[in-house]
Here is the input.
Amino acid sequence: MERLLAYMEKEQLDGMFISRPVNVRYVSHYTGADSWLFITRQERFFITDPRYTEQVSMECPDYTILNWRDEYGSVAKAVAAAAKKCGVRAIGFEEDVMTVEQYREFQDCTAAERTSRFTMAPSWLRNLARAVWSWPKMRTIMTPTRLCWTAWRS
Here is the structure.
């Protein structure tokens, strides 16, 4: 989380929308499905539907749960409401995950709330877990992998 917040500070982002499942799991430690995160400097929002709210409340107690289906009608509207609550003006997101249709919906929702402009997040957010691994940790993983590969090939 610290690296994500530092990145947001560096890129002058007030909020970050995270939708890639592996990144949602890495950042929040949530083990379920159908979920998104909206992280601001002030608050962490977990966006899901009624099927998962109980699980989220147990696994992610530090997050404010937004039930997008019952309370907002769409994920974009839930993010726009959270952005307005926190005074967010610049939102980053994973550029290789969001479709053009989703991007347009987010723009429409935030424009309606008069809250935010969107800023494309850089490619390193494609996999947050991989982005924070150090070279010593990578070498620790690569050595047994090479040994297994060599044994398999012979």
Notes: The chain has one domain: 2-153. Confidence is low (pLDDT under 50) at residues 130-135.
